[in-house]
Each structure stands twice: as structure tokens, then as C-alpha cells.
Amino acid sequence: xxxxxxxxxxxxxxxxxxxxxxxxxxxxxxxxxxxxxxxxxxxxxxxxxxxxxxxxxxxxxxxxxxxxxxxxxxxxxxxxxxxxxxxxxxxxxxxxxxxxxxxxxxxxxxxxxxxxxxxxxxxxxxxxxxxxxxxxxxxxxxxxxxxxxxxxxxxxxxxxxxxxxxxxxxxxxxxxxxxxxxxxx
Length: 185
Known about the structure:
The chain is mostly helical. It has five helices and two strands.
């Protein structure tokens, strides 16, 4: 009985320690392989608004900085042609008005009256087309910023592919057309 008494006391003294195989704070945590980006439903609206406010600002908001020179190049070129054709139209119109008043000292002395009217119509048509192109590029800038902001939120990485495939039929050796959907893990 003495031996049992000593064993019980020894087990109470030594066995009172807590022993864990791992600490709770440093347990193995699983890592999420797919990072989810929060979708901002107002992002396309903001990009379109910024692009309408100042052309190219929506592209900067979408972090597509390489598109800004294209936007300014398109709008600037069409605006340049609008201003140039407008100046030439007004010059031809003023020369024709002076001819109607009896003056013949304009820069278009080599043109008769009918050719001067044709030049006015030509430059007026080109001026109006240049204005339409300027407005069209401005609207295209807004639409591109909106669509670009929508597409930023989609997962378009190299692991996901969807492509057409032409393969030979094993029985009659005729080409078959199909679609393949591949996802690499």
C-alpha cells in the first residue's frame, strides 16, 4: 500500500502539468489560394463620369494609362481638322461676300464665283464631319472607360481558357469542329 500511495502522490505532483502537442496560437492555418477582390458596382459609373468630365480621366481611374494618349490623339486630331476647316470655310465665305460687294482683292482671285461656292460647301462639309468625329471620339472615350471598368472585375488569367478546336474523327477521318474548355489547377 505504501508503494501505491507514493505513486498516486507522485502522479498528482508531476501529472498536474498541461501538455499539448501544439500551441493553439501557432496551429497550422490553411492558405486561401484564390484571393477574392471585392466587386465595386459603382466603379464603371465612376469611370464613365470621370471620363465625361475630363477625357482620359476614366482610363486613369481604371489604371490603363497607355490609353490616355490614344484618347487625346483621336480627339485632338479631329478637333484640329474642325478648327482648320472652319477657318478655311470662313475665309472662303468672306471672300465670296466681298466679291458680291464688288471687291476683287481677295486671296482666291484664281477661283471664279462658282468654284468659291464649291470650296465653301467642301470646307463646311468637312468641318461638320470633323465635329461629328470629335463628338464620336468623346462618346467612345466614355464608353471605353465604362466597359474597361466592367472588365477589370472579371477573372481573365492564363489558367482559364476557352478555344475552338478542330480534330480528326478516328473512324472516317473527317475534320470535326468543337470547343474545349480548359482549367489548369
